Amino acid sequence: MDVTDITPQLDQLDSGLIELQNVLKPLLGDIADVSSKLPLLDKAKLYVLVSYAIESLLFSSLRLNEVETKNHAIFSELTRVKQYFDKIQKLETPAAERESTLNTEAAIRFVRSDLSGDKGISSKLSELIAKERAKAALRAAKVDNKRPAADEPSNTGDRSGQTNKNPPKKPKHGGSKKAK
């Protein structure tokens, strides 16, 4: 390859470096003044981005000079700055809700199979399960009552379109009347 073949690329590199220097000059010249006007998270982003820009330029310079960069200190610095990027990204994104829940039906099957020989404990377990299911049903009913029913008309005979805040009362007797 002839030296005259790469002169356009060198000119392009030189103009690119001058442009980069002009773009970074206001930012690097008075970075404390710029960062003092930013909120804490944005300030952290600014410092990490500036340090990453400097470290990556040093890394590129070493690579151009054919220095082994894998074992160089600049590589560990780049890794450290990338870890800061990850930490900031973790702070910016909200935590995902916990997806794993307890499969109560499976747990009940395990406990029942272990206690299948003892009738007293098995009956107490059945009572406890029935109580827990009743509590869960009450909680679900409370949640359903708290939700507004905008589409449905009131079931108390009021045709005004307003929903009834008080649910209909249930009979005090637990038994149901059988049709004869």
What does this structure look like?
- One of its GO terms (biological process) is maturation of 5.8S rRNA.
- It is found in: Nucleus.
- Required for exosome-dependent processing of pre-rRNA and small nucleolar RNA (snRNA) precursors. Involved in processing of 35S pre-rRNA at the A0, A1 and A2 sites.
- The protein is mainly alpha-helical.
- Among the domains are: about 10-90; about 105-145.
- Helices cover about 65% and strands about 0% of the residues.
- It contains six helices and no strands.
- α3 (about 40-65) runs antiparallel to α4.
- The longest helix is centred in the C-terminal third of the chain and has 28 residues, at about 120-145.
- The radius of gyration is 35 Å and the shape is elongated.
In short:
The chain has 180 residues and is mainly alpha-helical.
Shape: elongated
Which parts are unreliable, with pLDDT below 50 for 5 consecutive residues or more? 151-163
Q: How would you characterize the largest beta sheet?
A: none
Following the backbone from N to C, one meets helices and strands in this order, namely HHHHHH
Helix content: 55-70%
| Secondary structural class | mainly alpha
Strand element count: 0
Quote the distance from N terminus to C terminus. 105 Å
What kind of assembly state do the chains in view correspond to? single chain
| Binned strand content | under 5%
Biased composition (Polar residues): 153-163
InterPro entries: Exosome-assoc_fac/DNA_repair, Sas10/Utp3/C1D
Biased composition (Basic and acidic residues): 139-150
Function: Required for exosome-dependent processing of pre-rRNA and small nucleolar RNA (snRNA) precursors. Involved in processing of 35S pre-rRNA at the A0, A1 and A2 sites.
